[in-house]
Write a structure and sequence with these properties.
There is one protein chain. With 330 residues, this protein is of the alpha+beta class. Helices cover 40% and strands 21% of the residues. It contains twelve helices and twelve strands. The strands form two sheets. It has an eight-stranded antiparallel beta sheet with strand order 1-2-3-4-11-6-9-12, sandwiched between helices. A four-stranded antiparallel beta sheet has the order 5-10-7-8, with no helix packed on it. Helix 4 (168-183) packs across helix 6 (219-231), helix 6 (219-231) crosses helix 8 (252-261) and helix 7 (241-247) crosses helix 8 (252-261). The radius of gyration is 22 Å and the shape is globular. It starts with a strand and ends in a 6-residue tail after the last helix. 32% of the residues are buried.
């Protein structure tokens, strides 16, 4: 299964996705589809590497990729092993960043000592003067960013910046890249410029290992990262704006200001998401969980408070809602 979002006529943006992990898919033809999508949407100035034949013949991956001017990023989840075909020559002069969520991503240069393995939960950012070989074990999930060298090389020099993928700066960069992909088709010229500038600014914050919390362009990325972090802690009684600010290494005022720019309250977002997940749990449990159990699990003060906010949002109490959807006996 493939999907192309279409490239701009001037080549300023493009996106595509491919999925050969769906049941019944024949992976043999999907590498060619991936290559066609890459060449059509991202290939101008960003040529795709050559892969081993055993990789192209068993290409079981789920991937999406996007380009914003001279910057690109790829999300890749591979069910099969991935390896480039051979040692590469020439000059690349690009900054690459790898954020590994699962598995391991190994990079190798022309010399034996130029070999790095990025483990799950880690990232690597460095300037690359010549193309590198890479390989990944099956079941590897990685986000790869290809960045222009100009703004980043002075910060990096010859060093590689590595660290945990859940650091505040990396979370912000990943959240913004995800947001750019989701909104890609609706971006006009000004949006493309803003997306590009913010991605570069956030990549520089990773290189500096600090976030510029007075830069207003970064507010949407900060809000997005906070939402992602909150979503993963909805059942945690410690979840609060203060905890999120601490985890993202920004002041509480900066975090609240980012949500104000987005036109919402962080407290309201947490309450809404907890209520939404409680409603889904109510449906999934088919009445097996009591109202008090749902309230406790999703960190509502008590069942009365849970019932009150549920009814205000959905127009029915949890019991009435379950009965109306056929989840409980009449």
């Amino acid at each position: 299964m493939t999907n192309g979002a279409g490239a701009e006529a001037d080549g300023s943006r493009g996106a595509f996705s491919v999925d050969s992990t769906v049941p019944g898919a024949a992976p043999q033809g999907f590498f060619q589809a991936f290559q066609r999508g890459w060449d059509a949407e991202l290939g101008d100035g960003l040529p795709l590497r050559s892969f081993n034949r055993d990789v192209t013949g068993d290409f079981r991956v789920r991937s999406r990729a996007a380009k914003v001017r001279d910057l690109a990023f790829t999300d890749l989840h591979s069910m099969s092993a991935i390896r480039t075909a051979h040692a590469l020559g020439g000059v690349e002069d690009r900054v690459r960043m790898y954020v590994v969520k699962r598995g391991a991503w190994t990079l190798a240069g022309s010399r034996d000592r130029d070999r790095h393995t990025v483990a799950a939960g880690q990232f690597l950012l460095r300037h690359v003067g010549q193309p590198w070989r890479f390989e990944a074990a099956p079941h590897t999930t990685v986000k790869i960013l290809l960045l222009p060298p100009g703004p980043l090389t002075p910060l990096l020099g010859n060093r590689a910046v590595t660290g945990p993928a859940d650091s505040a700066e990396v979370r912000l960069l990943v959240a913004h890249a995800n947001m750019v992909y989701e909104t890609m088709t609706g971006l006009g010229p000004a949006g493309v410029q803003a997306a590009h500038s913010t991605l570069l600014e956030l990549a520089q914050s990773v290189a500096r290992r600090r976030f510029d919390d007075v830069e207003p362009r970064l507010a949407p990325a900060l809000a997005g990262a906070a939402k992602d972090l909150a979503d993963s802690h909805l059942t945690d009684p410690e979840l609060s704006p203060t905890m999120l600010a601490r985890e993202l290494n920004v002041s509480l005022r900066t975090l609240q200001r980012a949500f104000t720019v987005a036109g919402e309250s962080l407290i309201a977002y947490i309450r809404h998401r907890r209520l939404e997940e409680a409603r889904r749990a109510l449906i999934a449990s088919a009445g097996r969980l009591s109202v008090s159990e749902l309230a406790a699990h999703w960190q509502f003060a008590d069942s009365s408070h849970f019932i009150r906010v549920f009814k205000k949002t959905y127009g029915q109490t949890p019991t009435e809602y379950a009965r109306s959807t056929g989840l409980t006996d009449s």
